[in-house]
Amino acid sequence: MTRPRKRVHLAAHFPGVNNTTVWADPRSGSQIDFASFVHLARTAERGTFDFFFLAEGLRLRELKGRIHDLDVVGRPEALTVLSALAAVTDRLGLAGTVNATFNEPYELARRLSTLDHLSEGRAAWNVVTSSDAFTGENFRRGGYLDRADRYRRAGEFVELSRKLWDSWQPDALVADQDSGRFVRTGDVGAFRHQGEQFTVEGRFTLPRGPQRHPVIIQAGDSDEGREFAASAADVIFSRHGTLEDGRAFYADVKRRLARYGREPATLKIMPAATYALGDTEEEAAERAAEIRRLQVGPQTAIAFLEQVWGRDMSAVDPDGPLPDIEPNLADGVSQGRAAHGDRASLAAKWRTIADEKRLTVRELVIEVTGRQTFIGTPESVARQIDEHVQADAADGFILVPHLTPGGLDEFVDRVVPLLRERGVFRTEYTGGTLREHLELT
Amino acid sequence: MTDQHQALHLAVALDGAGWHPAAWRESSARPSQLFSARYWAGLVAEAERGLLDFVTIEDALGLQSAGFDGPDERVDQVRGRFDAVLLAARLAPLTTSIGLVPTATVTHTEPFHVAIGIATLDHISGGRAGWRPQISGRAAEARHFGRRPFPPLDPRDDERIRPLFEEAADAVEVARRLWDSWDDDAEIRDVPTGRFIDRDRLHYIDFAGRFFSVKGPSITPRSPQGQPVVTALAHARIPYEFAAGAADVVYVTPHSAEQAASIVAEIRELSGEVRIFADLLVLLGEDAAARKARLDELDGAELDSDAAIFTGTVEELADLLIAWQRAGIQGYRLRPGAVPYDLKQITRGLTAELRGRGVFRRAYESGTLRGLLGLPRPAGRYAEVR
Hints:
The complex is a heterodimer. Chain A is an alpha/beta fold.
């Protein structure tokens, strides 16, 4: 007895502000013009993707005390762009990353509900938290949150948001001209919440949205992050793109669901994935290597080295061997990006790889900072994606193109039709809301 | 040919089914659609058809109420509102020329978020964004956040009101600094040096005030207008001072030409620059008085407003607008009593009447809101001349 083939879910990540996004390519367009967002969103909708995804970063990244200038910089306020995209798309889900540390539930729940109404049920919120004082310098309350409290705040934030989204009864809006009754009861939107993070009460300003609750996405990978996802998220945006890592992560997270009375299918696991396509396997491999070279230019290679070594390495030749310099473990040089973990062991590992493979600094950084998730012909990439999903390494992928805004065109033109032929990806939207696309209802 | 010196600016203030509390009960109203994008798209398309300078969208961090300091239990009036910045963003791709001016509260919110939201609206709309910063002094709204306790609000208590406007002024200052924190030419995409930006053209704003500190720079590049248009509603001395210092356009609420002249004189002592608009709540048409009486009866009370209430024909309204213009009023923000009825009276009847008198545009003369209002695009304050 074989189980039915799982359906693949796909999302499109607008290229971000790190070196994955190649801006030196002549085809690279604006990262801020609305036309770029429209192009990528419409491409994703043409490909019947589940959703479009925007990341967030509330302070510009710094290296050696100065604003990092080698990668794309500058982005819009996520929910504002998504609301505009709701006007130029019909079915595509619209997911925005919004920080739970530097927002308050009443305001953010209201904005998300607004987006859900204005998109007729396509809103999603990627919940992130931050404890760093660096980003906090842009906000009223600063970096006040203890690291251990991040998921406690996120959990209570989501719980309270759901209370607010439920605060109007389903039939609260009457709008009956004959009887003169606009709302059914005089206490519409009443709520009260007393908790460790928030003690609030009052009246919420919006009727229930088309999805009732916008889709909740979670992206953290720690034990607390996984537990939070199991308790509260609809989708996990993970980083485990390989088959083995993906299966282990998938099994671990889905196992946690039972504790919260949830079925495995109620949480979709969607790792980030990059790709390089070619007419032949060789051509795809060549293109993959070329993209990696563009992603790790000489200056970027040195910048990566400086982040791990914790010191100025600007005198190092990127096309020469790794110099015999010890890392400075006392303090870092990088601010505003995800932590790299234990720098001492990372530096030792990099040195071993450089020595064994006789790599230049730039070749080393290309080697250790990860190749594309899927490389191959459209047929082979479609097969790999399907295999990952059927093998329970994922429920789908959040694709990260390396070019703005045309980086998804080729995937949609060449890979999506093959996924459809395999019978694992929709040929047209059958539902109206994002929850329906994700089979969460 | 419109004489530039006499041209009037015209905006409408959109809110729910209109500004009469019973407006939703008019036969032409569509109250069940108030929470749909389609409804708002229709209204803003109508406003653009009339070549209006801009629409404003009302908002607050609490439910509407017939009372002053908090929610009521009434079931016979419109309750519920969208976040106005997101609603304006939803409307931007559906319009091409009209300015979009959402309200965003500055009291409990983060200035950084508000600033990048408005800058983003400016990017999305190709330079048509404005903003009406609004204070929230109500104790009930403070309890939605639970961060600072507010005593009951008395609008005559200057000691309560003043710090709220001081905080608002700081929020606008932060927003303007953030909007300037990227030079227009900060993005260089210099392949030989591998640099996407010239970081010397990005600037920390280092704002440190009584209510908050913001380091900067913005995460959003400088927008088409450089600085979106800041507008403020003001009824008294403290908000006049706020508007004169922080806003590009101030909406005032005179009830006669004489009052208009004295308010203009008071504001002109504070600022020679700020554009002065008058707010009017209007019910229009031959039967306007009867319509108002019917709506008053449905609501169980006579219509009350901070702004002057006008009932009459568009010809009579045009007379009034031109008379007040002589008192120094440069434009009007009309609050339609009921939409779509009174909105269409404005966009089709009033604009035609004003055009006939040579005081209103026959075509949009600019693609940006600043351009429509005759406001120059400001240079970034941190940018060095290169």
